[in-house]
Amino acid sequence: MVKICCIGAGYVGGPTMAVIAVKCPEIEVAVVDISVSRIQAWNSEVLPIYEPGLDEVVKQCRGKNLFFSTDVERHVAEADIVFVSVNTPTKTRGLGAGKAADLTYWESAARMIADVSKSDKIVVEKSTVPVKTAEAIERILTHNSKGIKYQILSNPEFLAEGTAILDLFNPDRVLIGGRETSDGQKAVEALKSVYAHWVPEDKILCTNLWSAELSKLAANAFLAQRISSVNAMSALCEATGADVAQVAHAVGTDSRIGPKFLTASVGFGGSCFQKDILNLVYICECNGLVEVAGYWKQVIKVNDYQKSRFVNRVVSSMFNTVAGKKVAILGFAFKKDTGDTRETAAIDVCKGLIGDKAHLRIYDPQVSEEQIQRDLAMDKFEWDHPAHLQPAAAGADKQVSVVGDAYEAAKGAHAVCVLTEWGEFKGLDYRRIYEGMQKPAFVFDGRNVVDVEKLREIGFIVYSIGKPL
Ligand code: NAD
Ligand code: UGA
């Protein structure tokens, strides 16, 4: 029986390994983590992450060929293939702070693998890492190799949160990069045979290590660039009377461009787009490619601009001040169908409004009050560094309260801001909401989910992204 161990039981490690276990019943999969609470949650009825379809997959194989454990060393020692899926956040201190990837967690995982291994291993980079990381990892693994042979593969993950299970069951492609030696190619084949249980062969792309590592950063940069492009257009639409949805449709109908990922929004969020582009920018700068770095940096600048443009719109529309005014925030997660708030646009928007002394009442169907208060108390880039994952101080911010539904959030409010595209926000009884609000009642739709005409008929003043006012 082939044994797989995955270090890191997070948004990637958990779902990815659950799908491997369900598709490959003859492979034993152990997912390990240093976080005791996370592992406890994976072994409980309430999984640590909310992801449609995940519960069913985990329940099918947990305790059979899928195990969650904190006994990191034992499972690593026993495994033939070790996936490393630890967090690789942006550095907050020292050389490259604010841009470079912090590989502390990766390095400590690699050192541990080197220390506990007693047999040859394939070590798979699942985390998103800077190009050439495999070379550094190889050096760490072999520094006290005790005659053990390691093959490093790059196998970046392309799943998106909210659709992780669908993406894993039916990926556009699986990418495997390996050394172009005969041992390297044998390792590529071994990993390929795992995915071949359910992924058609023509969708398993094999490249050299550096292409695989760089392709992951490139894919995220291209995806984010599309959003910044359509968001940049949304500003021009508002200035000219064009409608960004119509423009995006007309542009996306060109088969060379394609219709996906052209939805204008208050700004992209999530743990990866910004982090990975900053990482790319840093690598370009280190290689003396200043113009290339500047090109990609602009994707983030436009995203920051979009978020501050939204805050400015709210404040300027409400007679240039929101001091003491109540603002309902509908949605805090970085997208629908996830409880993840990492780098969500809602953090910057809420901080902007709090800065102008607004009182916020926040509702999100999947995000807890503790998480929201912690996010709003934390500095940029600190969220992914465990030392900083402290609960917010009791009674944290009096300007912010978190409530249990959208109607409660909007009660007595001067304005409603929609920041996540949760389906339930489309079907709300906006007449009821209007009646309970202060007048004039404003709606600022950062996700273009409300029916603008209908809301205007009710009496709302409505602002949508990239639509005529
Ligand atoms: P995460 O923070 O949810 O999970 C990482 C886990 O690794 C944590 O539970 C942490 O406790 C654990 N960990 C850290 N160091 C460890 C160690 N030495 N030993 C054991 N466990 C350790 O992160 P994530 O969202 O799953 O992302 C992981 C990687 O995958 C990142 O590089 C990210 O860029 C990449 N990625 C993420 C997504 C996504 O949708 N979240 C998609 C594709 C790729
Ligand atoms: C993204 C990529 O889509 C995945 O392929 C990749 O594996 C992952 O990053 C990663 O490396 O972490 P994710 O961040 O989970 O996945 O979610 P996306 O669906 O890409 O959305 C990212 C952000 O962009 C969200 O805030 C979303 O609301 C926003 N977005 C997306 C838009 O504003 N407009 C769009 O048209 C699409």
TrEMBL record:
GO terms for biological process: glycosaminoglycan biosynthetic process; UDP-glucuronate biosynthetic process. It catalyses: UDP-alpha-D-glucose + 2 NAD(+) + H2O = UDP-alpha-D-glucuronate + 2 NADH + 3 H(+). Pathway: Nucleotide-sugar biosynthesis; UDP-alpha-D-glucuronate biosynthesis; UDP-alpha-D-glucuronate from UDP-alpha-D-glucose: step 1/1. Transmembrane segments: none annotated. GO terms for molecular function: NAD binding; UDP-glucose 6-dehydrogenase activity. Its EC number is 1.1.1.22. SUPFAM superfamilies: 6-phosphogluconate dehydrogenase C-terminal domain-like (SSF48179), NAD(P)-binding Rossmann-fold domains (SSF51735), UDP-glucose/GDP-mannose dehydrogenase C-terminal domain (SSF52413). The active site is at C272. It comes from the Eukaryota. The keyword Lipid metabolism does not apply. GO terms for cellular component: nucleus. Belongs to the UDP-glucose/GDP-mannose dehydrogenase family. This is UDP-glucose 6-dehydrogenase.
